[in-house]
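Technical note accompanying the year-one report. For the benefit of new consortium partners, we illustrate the data format agreed upon in the data management plan: each record pairs a sequence with a C-alpha cell string. No post-processing was applied to the example shown here.
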Amino acid sequence: MSPRCKKVDRLSSLPEKVHSVILSLMPTKFAVRTSILSKRWRYTWTLIHNLDFDDIRSNSYSHVDRVLMLCKTTCVKILRLHFSKTKIHVPDSTVSRWISEAVRLNGVKSLKDESQIILSKRWRYTWTLIHNLDFDDIRSNSYSHVDRVLMLCKTTCVKILRLHFSKTKIHVPDSTVSRWISEAVRLNVSELDISNVGLPLSLFTCNTLSKLSLKLIEHYNKFSLECPPSIYLPNLKTLDIIAMSERFDYANPISCDNIFKLIHGCPLLEDLSLKIHLPYNTEDLYFKAPTLKRLRLALSYGSSRDIHKVVLNVPNLEYLHIEEGFAKCSLFVMEDLSSLVKAKVSCGVFYNHLWVELVKGLSKVRNLTLDTASEVIGHAFKNVHFPEFPHVKKLDLVGCDPFTLREMLRFQILKRFCQLEHLCIKKEQEGRWSEPNSFPTLTFTNMLTVEYTDTTCWEEFNTNFLKFILANAIDLKKLIVRYNSDLVTCKEREQLDAELSMLPRASRNCQIHLAPYN
C-alpha cells in the first residue's frame, strides 16, 4: 500500500444501528470497553439492546448501575444477571433497581459490563444502546456494574436480561436483585433468565415478558419462589423452571403451589419445562392449559415410592417429553392429548404397569421415542395390556439392552406398530442372542428404513438381530448400521461389511449402509 494512502476506519463509519447490533452480540463488559477507541466511540455502547452482566461481585457491581444509567437504546431485548460463585452480597434493592431500569428501556437481551469503553471516545457510550443484558456468575463483591449498566442503558426495549448468581455461598440483597428486575420490566423486557434470586412484584404483571427462565438451586441458603396473590403475564409464551437441591434435602423440597400459580397466570403459555424436586406427600398434579403446545416434565418425589397421579388436560399439546425421575412413581391420566404428534419417554419406573399406563396415553402419536434403559421396560412388554400404536410412523428405541430387544421380538411388540415406517434402535449394552426359532414369525409390511446403532463392541447379537429384521421386513429400502469406531478396527469393519452383505433379505430393494456413529 502506498504511504500516501490514508487508513480508513470502516467500522466507525457504520451507522449507529449497525454498531448497536454488533455490540449487542458480545458480553456487556466487552461492549463498554469500546469507549476507549476514540471520542466518537465513547458512548456508542449505550445503544446496545442486550445487557449481559456475568460474574457480578459484591465489591464491584457499581458498573451495572452505570451501564443502565448511560444506556440510550429505546428497547432492551435481553437483560442477563449472573452472580459470582463465591460468597457475595448485593442488596435486593440494587438488583430490583437494575431490572426496573431494564424495564424502563422496554426490553433487554444481554449486557455484561463496560469493557468496550477502551476502544475510543466515540465508543465510550456506544454499548449503552445494546438490547441484551447478560450478567453471569454474579458475585457479592462485584455486582455494582449491574446497577451501572442498567442506569446507563439507553435502549427503549431490552430483549433479554440474564441474571445468574454464583454457585458458591453468596449474599446479594433481595432489594438489589428486585431493583434490577424492576428496571428490566421498566425497559419492557422480553426475556428473563434468572438464577437463585428473588422476584419483585412488578415482574408478575409485566406486559412485555414473553420468555421466563427460573433456576432455583439450593446451595447453602434456602431459595423459594414467592408469588403475589394475583399473577398476570399476558404475553408470556415460554416458561422454564428448575427448582432442585444440590444437597438432596428430601426433608425440605421446594413447594410447587406457587409454581402452578405462576403457570396459571400465563393465559398464552405455549412452551413449559419443569424440573422440580417435590415433597413425597405431594398431592395429585393437574395440568390444564388449553394453549400449551410443548411440555417437558422432570419431577422427582424424593425417596418415596408412593404412587402420585399426574393428570394432563392439554388439548393443543403437540410435543411431550417425560424425563428421567418423573414417571418412577407417577400414574398418568391423559384426559385430553388430542393434538399430540410427538412424544419422548426417557425415564425409569419402579412398577412396569405404570410405564404401560404412561405409553398407553401416547397411542395416538406419530413420532415416539422410548428410552428402554430400565430393565422394567423389558418386562412391561409381557403385559397383556401393552397398547397398540396405529398412527406411529417413526419409533426410536434408545438405551436398549439385549434383554429388552429379545423381549420385543418374543412378544411381537413391533406388530403393535402397524403403520411403522422408520425404526431407530440404539443399543448401549452387551448381551447374548437367543435361538432364532424361539421368536414367532413376524412380517413388517410398511417398514421402509431401519437404523441400528451399537455403542459397544460389535457382537454376534447384533448380526442375529439384524438378520431377523432383514428376513421379515418385506418392503425395507434401507438398513443403516452404525458402529463404535473406537472399538472396531478397519479390518473388523471390512469383515462386518462383508458379513452384513451376505445376510438374506426379504426385500430385493434393500440397501445396507455401514458407518461409524462417532
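Partners are asked to follow this layout when depositing records. The mean pLDDT is 78.
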